[in-house]
């Protein structure tokens, strides 16, 4: 391993797993590790295992070659203090001072950010946003999150909570969202929303290929199954995906008018539905955006590595 490269330790903590890597300036993950987050056991237990995994990862690495650590975490983070305030998937991690804990452990500068915010940075430095300083990143999976890069800087807002794209209201009287509000983009265009919309149709007795894919067990309806049925040509599934994509297009239109991005990057599991999703989104944005705006809507390039590479970008760049 070349020691002339600047190396960054990078950690992505999700509700199910954590991932750890040593990244270089080009965004190559030179060493990687992972483990279970086990949120039910509390942060101390997981942090202990993460520290052990870091020690193992750094063995044989010249101490001076690692310039810092970046941490991406699924939750609300205060960027200045690096405290994880709350996380729906890591409830027991309430008020965990991640920056302080790892700076003390490693004697290295540590930066912490929301995983979707950091994914925007990762795509900016290493992925689908390379070459543009005005980017909107949206992850569409179980929920919807995102990040806004404007003029090459990450938009953080006054408390660091900017970019909660999923909780923009799309329908005043829409379905209930996990955040307590109703009609949020997340409640109308996420993977969870796709499954719910399909379930509504199936419980009204509509015939669909989805039923065969789940052997008639409605508890097994997921966005993945719905997308699979839509791909196979099932009209009910196609209508559901089209509805969710149209809602997403309305959300993107709002964001294009507010932030005037050059590129909108769609990532997350649902974005892998390809043209089934992108075509209606592009169409809605084209129809609803004022004529002088111009925007490209493209798929994310970094896949599951977006959190790790985003955390690396946070340390390597000057985004804050
Ligand atoms: Zn919401």
Give the structural class. alpha/beta
C-alpha end-to-end distance: 30 Å
Topology as a string of helices (H) and strands (E): EEEHEEEEHEHEEEHHHHHEHEH
Strand order of the largest sheet: 3-2-1-4-8
- Uncertain stretches: none
Helix content: 25-40%
Would you tell me the overall average pLDDT? 96
**Any idea what the CATH superfamily of the largest domain is called?**
ATPase, nucleotide binding domain
Largest sheet: 5 strands, mixed
| Tally of DSSP helical segments | 10
Please state the oligomeric state of the protein chains shown.
single chain
Q: List all distinct small molecules, including ions and cofactors, that are bound in this structure.
A: zinc ion
Task: Work out the count of structural domains.
Answer: 2
What share of residues are in beta strands? 15-25%
Question: Would you mind describing this structure in some detail?
Answer:
With 320 residues, the chain is of the alpha/beta class. The protein has 2 domains: 7-123 and 305-316, 2-Layer Sandwich (Nucleotidyltransferase, domain 5); 130-300, 2-Layer Sandwich (Nucleotidyltransferase, domain 5), CATH 3.30.420. The chain is built from 10 helices and 13 strands. The protein has helices at 43-58, 98-106, 115-126, 185-189, 191-203, 209-213, 223-231, 235-259, 275-288, 306-316; strands at 7-13, 17-24, 29-36, 66-73, 76-78, 83-86, 96-97, 110-114, 135-140, 144-150, 153-154, 263-267, 296-299. A 5-stranded mixed beta sheet has the order 3-2-1-4-8, sandwiched between helices. Strands 11-10-9-12-13 form a 5-stranded mixed beta sheet, with helices on both faces. A hairpin with a 3-residue loop joins strand 9 (135-140) and strand 10. The two termini are 30 Å apart. The model has no long low-confidence stretch (mean pLDDT 96). Bound molecules: zinc ion. Zinc ion (ZN) is lined by residues 167, 177, 179, 181, 184, 186.
């Amino acid at each position: 391993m070349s020691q002339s490269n600047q190396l960054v330790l990078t950690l992505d903590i999700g509700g199910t797993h954590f991932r750890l890597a040593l990244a270089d300036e080009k965004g190559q993950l030179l060493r990687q590790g992972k483990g279970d987050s086990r949120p039910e056991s509390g942060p101390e237990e997981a942090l202990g295992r993460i520290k052990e995994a870091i020690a193992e990862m750094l063995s044989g690495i010249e101490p001076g070659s690692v310039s810092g650590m970046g941490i991406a975490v699924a939750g609300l983070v205060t960027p200045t203090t690096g405290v994880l305030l709350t996380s729906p998937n890591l409830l027991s991690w309430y008020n965990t001072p991640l920056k302080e804990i790892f700076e003390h452990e490693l004697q290295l500068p540590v930066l912490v950010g929301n995983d979707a915010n950091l994914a925007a940075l990762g795509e900016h430095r290493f992925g689908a946003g390379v070459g543009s300083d005005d980017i909107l990143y949206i992850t569409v999976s179980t929920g919807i999150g995102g990040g806004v890069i404007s003029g090459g800087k990450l938009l953080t807002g006054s408390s660091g909570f900017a970019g909660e794209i999923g909780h923009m209201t799309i329908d005043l009287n829409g379905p209930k969202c996990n955040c307590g509000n109703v009609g949020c983009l997340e409640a109308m265009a996420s993977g969870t929303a796709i499954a719910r919309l399909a379930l509504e149709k199936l419980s009204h007795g509509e015939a669909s290929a989805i039923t065969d894919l789940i052997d008639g067990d409605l508890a097994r309806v997921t966005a993945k199954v719905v997308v699979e049925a839509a791909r196979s040509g099932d009209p009910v599934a196609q209508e559901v995906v089209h509805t969710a994509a149209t809602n997403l297009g309305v959300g993107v239109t709002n964001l294009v008018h507010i932030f005037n991005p050059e590129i909108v990057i769609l990532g997350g599991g649902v974005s892998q539905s390809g043209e089934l999703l992108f075509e209606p989104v592009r169409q809605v944005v084209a129809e609803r955006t004022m004529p002088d705006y111009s925007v490209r809507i493209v798929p994310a390039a970094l896949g599951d590595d977006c959190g790790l590479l985003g955390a690396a970008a946070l340390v390597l760049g000057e985004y804050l």
